[in-house]
Recover the amino acids of this structure.
């Protein structure tokens, strides 16, 4: 898709494959600059809110606006579509609407939310959570990246004043309806054989940090019977994650990140950090999976003479998108399917505060959060047309 081609050299991750573009890092700052230039080239006035989210206004800013957009940051080694497709499609939809001779009858903005993936500071949807007051400013500012750089320092280096972060009632009041277009992360549309759909719900999901502490020692000089090896207990936790998720209908649980400390080949770690991502249809099932994992972690640690701590880092209950808005937008599109998703989105955060909907664009393999993530040009074009139709119906 044209706009995406502009981004293909930004944040390329030669080691992991795909792209690594994280909150306020050089790649993401380059993406922000690209978005600002593209928006200004369209005569949209761009401003950055106190939480690092970018807003490009078509006409004067105002309350009750029709807002569309997504995020530009990625997971480590992520694909090209997750996030940027929604931003590029929003700009393209403005072009299509202008081509139709349409001018919004109410305030209209394209938004780019900050740090949606939590790829740097660990909390998903950080920009939209801050805006909505779904995370305490002090807790957010204390978040740090793997190099120990805090969110406050990263925002400051990007020219923002971290002291201003926090719930932004004026920004919320400006959102009359928010529609996020996103590549589908799953095979719903491809199995149905249609290019575009609307979202019905998002799984409940959270992230937990698990730290197993044992005794650091020499890999060669320490007899097996004398070890308190946190890596062995952590391995048991990873297996318990799989077991616990399989035991609950529809649940998903993942350990995608495990960091031994100090991390030497010939060193028994003194501690191991791993992060759990757990999701299920509702709060009770998600909590049940996590409780099962916590119990398994306790016994695995005890068995190995280690201790374990488990800290919740972010959590969001199930999101059900406004069915009236969902069905009315599906109607505008001639009746497209409504699909649940296991992936979180800024729209999932905003849905608790303002009328919110999502459009999905077909993903032929369903793969996401990986370089293989893909959407056909024709389906991306169908997504832009659908977004333009929906925005026109809302902004008339
Ligand atoms: O993790 C998620 O589901 C989203 O991509 N942040
Ligand atoms: Mn994602
Ligand atoms: Mn996304």
């Amino acid at each position: 898709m044209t706009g995406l081609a502009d981004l293909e050299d930004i944040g390329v991750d030669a080691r992991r494959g795909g792209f690594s573009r994280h909150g306020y890092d050089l790649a993401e700052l380059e993406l922000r600059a690209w978005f600002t230039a593209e928006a200004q080239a369209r005569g949209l006035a761009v401003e950055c809110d106190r939480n690092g989210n970018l807003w490009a206004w078509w006409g004067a800013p105002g309350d009750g606006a029709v807002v569309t957009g997504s995020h530009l940051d990625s997971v480590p080694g992520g694909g090209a579509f997750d996030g940027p497709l929604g931003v590029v499609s929003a700009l393209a939809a403005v072009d299509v609407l202008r081509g139709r001779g349409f001018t919004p009858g109410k305030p209209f903005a394209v938004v780019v939310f900050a740090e949606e993936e939590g790829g740097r500071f660990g909390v998903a949807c950080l920009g939209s959570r801050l805006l909505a007051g779904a995370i305490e400013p002090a807790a957010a500012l204390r978040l740090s990246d793997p190099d120990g750089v805090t969110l406050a320092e990263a925002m400051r280096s990007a020219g923002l004043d971290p002291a201003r972060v926090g719930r932004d009632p004026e920004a919320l009041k400006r959102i009359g309806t928010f529609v996020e277009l996103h590549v589908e992360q799953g095979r719903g549309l491809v199995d149905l054989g249609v290019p575009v759909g609307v979202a019905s719900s998002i799984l409940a999901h959270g992230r937990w940090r698990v730290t197993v502490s044992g005794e650091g020692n020499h890999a060669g000089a320490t007899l097996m019977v004398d070890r308190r090896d946190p890596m062995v207990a952590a391995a048991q936790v990873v297996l318990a994650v799989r077991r616990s998720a399989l035991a609950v209908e529809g649940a998903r649980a993942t350990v995608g990140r495990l960091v031994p400390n100090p991390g030497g080949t010939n060193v028994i770690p003194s501690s191991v950090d791993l992060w759990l991502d757990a999701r299920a249809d509702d709060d009770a099932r998600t909590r049940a999976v996590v409780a099962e994992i916590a119990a398994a972690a306790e016994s695995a640690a005890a068995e190995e003479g280690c201790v374990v701590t488990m800290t919740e880092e972010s959590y969001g209950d199930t999101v059900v998108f406004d069915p009236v808005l969902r069905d009315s937008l599906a109607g505008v599109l001639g009746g497209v399917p409504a699909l649940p998703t296991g992936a979180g989105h800024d729209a999932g955060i905003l849905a608790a505060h303002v009328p919110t909907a999502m459009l999905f664009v077909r993903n032929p393999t369903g793969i996401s959060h990986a370089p293989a993530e893909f959407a056909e040009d024709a389906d991306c074009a169908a997504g832009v047309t659908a977004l333009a139709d929906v925005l026109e119906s809302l902004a008339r």
